[in-house]
Amino acid sequence: MTETPHTDRKMLESLVCPVTHAPLAFDAERQELVSRAAHLAFPIRGGIPIMLVDEARRLD
After folding, report:
1. Under a CB-based contact definition with an 8 Å cutoff, are residues 12 and 3 in contact?
2. Among 18, 29, 40, 45, which is disulfide-ready with 56 (CB 3.0 to 4.6 Å)?
């Protein structure tokens, strides 16, 4: 079984959306940071948030 790297909540709380500079919501189940303002979800891979718009998933 593969271990999931620990995600530092304090670090996540300090991040903002790179597009709107609005706060992000952490989705633990999907391992994403969600920007409701930009309608984007940024992935967290190996415990590292990928804050690139090109890597983000568009929300409907």
Report:
1. no
2. 40
